[in-house]
C-alpha cells in the first residue's frame, strides 16, 4: 500500500506532494552538481552556474513551503488535540448526566412501584359497587376510572355525613328519653316514699283506735 493510499486528508496529501517535489528537486540538483563539480580544475560555465542557482532557489522554495505546511500542520494538530480534549470533556459530562438520568429513572420507577403497591386507605372504604354508583349517578358514565373513584369517595362521604346527622338526632332523642325516664323514676320513687309515709300514718291511726278503754266506776 502506497503513501497516497494511506494518506487521505487533503492537507496531508498537499504536504506529501510538496515533500515529493522537494525530494525530486534535491535529486535533480544532486545530479546537476555531480555532472558539473565546482571543485574541478575548470569551473562550470556561467550558464551552468546560473542553472545551479535557479535549481537551488527552486529547492529552497519547496523547503520553505514544506516548513510552512509543517508548521501549520503542527498548529492544526494542537488545535485538534484541544478540540478533542474539549469534546472528550463534553462526552464525559454528557455520560455523567446520562448516568444521573438512569439513576433518577430507577429511583422514580421504584417510587412508582411503591405507590402502586401501597395499601391506600381509600381501598379499604366500603364503597358501593361501580355499576350501582353509575346507576345512581349516570352523569359519571363517561368519566375515567380516577374521576369515578373520587366521585364514589365523595358519595360515601356525603352518605356518612347524612348518617352521622341521623345518629346525632337519634342520640339527642335517646338522651331526651333517658332524661324523661329518669324523671318518671324519680316521680315513682317520690310516690313510693309518700305512699310508705301514708301507710305508716295509717298504721299508727289504726293502733290508736284499737287501744282498750278503761271504765272507772264511782
Distance between the termini: 184 Å
* Morphology call: rod-shaped
How many β-strand runs? 0
Please trace the helix and strand order, writing H or E for each element.
HHHHH
Beta-strand content estimate: under 5%
Structural class: mainly alpha
Q: Spans with pLDDT under 50 lasting ≥5 residues?
A: 213-218
Treating each run of at least 4 consecutive H or I residues as one helix, how many helices? 5
Work out the helicity level: over 70%
The radius of gyration computed from the alpha-carbon positions, rounded to a whole number of angstroms, is: 61 Å
Summarize this structure briefly:
The chain has 218 residues and is mainly α. The chain is 80% helix and 0% strand.
Describe this structure in words.
This protein is an all-alpha fold and 218 residues long. It is 80% helix and 0% strand. The protein has five helices and no strands. The chain has helices at residues 3-6, 10-35, 46-117, 130-136, 145-209. The longest helix is centred in the middle third of the chain and has 72 residues, at 46-117. It starts with a helix and ends in a 9-residue tail after the last helix. 1% of the residues are buried. The model is unreliable at 213-218 (pLDDT under 50).
Amino acid at each position: 500500500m502506497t503513501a497516497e493510499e494511506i494518506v487521505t486528508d487533503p492537507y496531508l496529501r498537499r504536504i506529501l506532494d510538496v515533500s515529493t517535489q522537494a525530494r525530486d528537486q534535491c535529486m535533480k540538483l544532486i545530479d546537476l552538481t555531480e555532472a558539473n563539480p565546482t571543485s574541478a580544475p575548470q569551473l562550470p560555465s556561467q550558464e551552468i552556474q546560473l542553472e545551479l542557482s535557479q535549481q537551488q532557489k527552486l529547492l529552497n522554495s519547496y523547503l520553505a513551503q514544506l516548513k510552512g505546511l509543517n508548521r501549520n500542520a503542527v498548529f492544526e494538530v494542537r488545535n485538534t488535540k484541544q478540540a478533542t480534549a474539549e469534546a472528550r470533556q463534553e462526552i464525559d459530562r454528557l455520560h455523567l448526566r446520562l448516568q444521573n438520568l438512569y439513576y433518577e429513572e430507577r429511583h422514580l420507577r421504584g417510587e412508582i412501584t411503591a405507590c402502586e403497591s401501597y395499601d391506600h386507605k381509600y381501598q379499604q372504604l366500603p364503597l358501593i359497587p361501580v355499576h350501582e354508583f353509575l346507576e345512581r349517578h349516570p352523569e359519571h358514565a363517561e368519566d375515567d376510572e380516577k374521576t369515578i373513584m373520587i366521585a364514589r369517595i365523595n358519595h360515601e362521604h356525603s352518605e356518612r355525613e347524612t348518617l352521622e346527622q341521623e345518629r346525632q338526632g337519634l342520640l339527642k332523642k335517646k338522651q331526651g328519653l333517658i332524661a324523661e325516664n329518669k324523671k318518671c323514676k324519680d316521680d315513682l320513687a317520690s310516690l313510693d316514699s309518700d305512699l310508705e309515709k301514708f301507710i305508716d300514718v295509717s298504721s299508727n291511726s289504726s293502733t290508736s283506735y284499737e287501744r282498750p278503754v278503761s271504765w272507772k266506776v264511782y
